[in-house]
Amino acid sequence: MGAYISLPSWRRSLDQRYRLVVGECPDCGALSFPPEGACHNCGSEADFDEFEPVGTGEIVAHTVVEGALPPEFSEFEKKVGAVGVVLVELDEGVRVPGMLTDCDPYTTERGDRVEKVARRLYEQEGVVRYGYKFRPIG
Amino acid sequence: MATDVSVEAYGAYVPRLRVEASEFEEAWGSFDARGVEEKRVPDADEDSVTMAVEAVEDALRWSAYSKDEVGTLVLGTTTPPLEEGEVGAQVAEILGMKTNTEVVVHSGSARAGVRSLVTACRSVETDEDMNASVAVASDCPLGKPDDSIDHAGGAGAVAFVVGEEGDVNVKDTASYTQEFSGTRFRERGEKAVKKYGATAYERDAYTTVVSGAYEAISPNDTQNAVLAPTAPDADMPYRAGRAVGTDVYETASSMGDTGAASALFGVLEGWQKDEDNVVAVGYGDGASADAVRLSGSFSGNWKHDTGTKKITYTEYLRRRGHVVDEGGDA
Amino acid sequence: MRDAYLVGAAQTEFGAFPRESYRSLFAEAFRKSMKSVDGELEKTEIDEAFVGNLGIGGRQIGLAGPAVTEHVGLAGTPCTRVENACAASGSALRHAVTAVRAGTADVALAGGYEVMTDMSGERTRRWLGVSGETEWERMAGTTFAGVYALMADAHMAEHGTTREQLSQVAVKNHSNGAKNPKAHLGFECSLDDAVSAGTVADPLNLYDCCPTSDGASVVLVASRDVAERVSDTQIHAAGTGQASSCVGLFRRPSIKSIPATRDAAEEAYDDAGVSSDDIDFAEVHDCFSIAEIIAYEDLGFCDEGDGGEFVESGATERDGELPVNLSGGLKSKGHPIGATGTGQVVEVFEQIRGEAGERQVEGLERGLTHNVGGSGGAVAVHVFEKEAW
Predict the structure, then answer these.
(1) Whole-angstrom Cα distance, residue C43 to residue A114?
(2) Closest partner residue to B330 among A67, A80, A123, by Cβ?
């Protein structure tokens, strides 16, 4: 089973999955998602200052996937067809990838503002994995 | 209640997808959920957990309490993602509740929604630290595609923030239990709810137990409180209403069967119509029911009628997982 | 530091071969590579082997390098499996070149192989996700098509790159690939076909995406002494460059270019003492049409943002000023992940030696290969030039 995320690995990332918790580098102020490893900007290995962003941001890149989703989403794909995937720049200034939900993926575009919402991502070995998705605001 | 307990805020979540009864008629030749004109459909990435989270977040937005001041979280649902396993833990974690929050799950029956409210009230009564409790009923019942239970099956969640003070006072609670086996149930390992299918028996069960619970709330104080009962369709609730002689509020006609959340949606409907003396009755087939009398009301539009999307019967089948597609490999 | 030379290079057909094993494919590429040497070279002269492979179709077998070198009679020869996703054999090549330059090998083998078509689509997608950023990008719903689609979206928004320009890459590479007997999808396609193909991940459609293929390739890198002895045409491995970048697109400052390509190219040009202007032809990593357009910019063949116009101008056609992907590229020739990097070298080898058959363009002397892993987590760039001495 390739590209499998173990449950303990998944659990370590719940702050990010549920609340998009971001890290600020104490040395240079750059933001990191997830807040782990060395700072991508300055290489500092100091612990990040973590905070929870508001959860809103702007779509900076957008695609609609038809029939080419990763297999974790095979069943989901059969149920909904085309799925929007976006790169969102959160208002705090850090980018996160996410799936669109609660909208027509074709009419939600680059430049639109979105907010995070908790949804089912996928189920594996009987356990449902929840996480953030993005939906248009308003 | 032994001490003052009130509903201080409420929240609700309704999926944006909806399907009309006419779609079912076209597919099956008839639509077998009495009185249901349209219902809401959870999207493929929604379930009782995600809807509960949305409803609680909605309620906390209106509440004066912060989530750190919530001492108890009670979830009521007939459709947890696992038969065994603390679904409450996932709801609490997604919401960001403190680890020492008392997390309770009531399941296995459509009574679970009102039961959750009762548990939340009891928690407030006994909490010395003046914490609030949150009760959330969240559900998306399913039946077999060709039967009336599925025809009725809808989805939604309602959350109440309960504390010592609030605009809606919890006056009294009561219970009624009498065995009427097999009217409606879901077996282990099954996704679809079944029913016995003898209409008179089912009506007898429902009206006896629902009115029994309603009337168990001190009859002198009831003062013609209106009834907001568990609503498996838009017909059954009115039978109980006629039995006790009062008006009924339900949302099955526009939302379908919202299971454990249905009685609380009925309460919201009553408040929308300016009712300020409402008895919510959570009915669980088998049968047991809880009644809670609420005095006062809230305003606000909770129906989320904007931005909805109508879907076809086929899209409904696909989303609800009724159709298993074994082909189509990339 | 010594110099390193290409003395042999060959690949199998790329395609779907249910009757071949990963060992038999490697063996075929090895045999052909030994045969491509002008003079006499014994396999016992191979001092070290570097073999690129991602996962043999998800089997995730350990010792994937020794398993194939043993199969061709090289048990005992030091062998290392190199994994850098789709840049595996390009990275293996760098190891071979630096080993010869450093003097730890007089002859080094660099090659790669992959079997991708013998498992169901679902299983293939499952193991292919390994080379992307799994936790966040994959679980946001992207396989590689999705990631490159996001890059295409940003590139089109910022630079005005068009749907037609993307498709022109496919038309060109199919036109070249139709002349390549080794190509997986060796047929021409019209601009109309390419533009109107079904969507995979908007804006990328079926004709913007390379296939998954089986295949193997092997190149032999040698010291000047050995090259002098065995080669009639001297092909100097003049420049080697390799760089890495954040595996996930979301962590990069820009998603309209691949920083590792810029860095690897800079190193390779520097090493070879040339600039992008001096390159006669190139094999670039067109896993998706947008990848080729972005590669033109990152390799310095045109200015940033002008990649779409560059392909539209015809500059990278067979008869253009800088032919790109004369082999058919990944799009038409195919993309057996581990084999692609050294497969690109095969085209350079054959073109410089005048052995490219119908694909031959006269007078090509300095070629560049550009091999990318994933969406740019690793990139290897090499410059080869014909030498006369």
Answers:
(1) 61
(2) A67
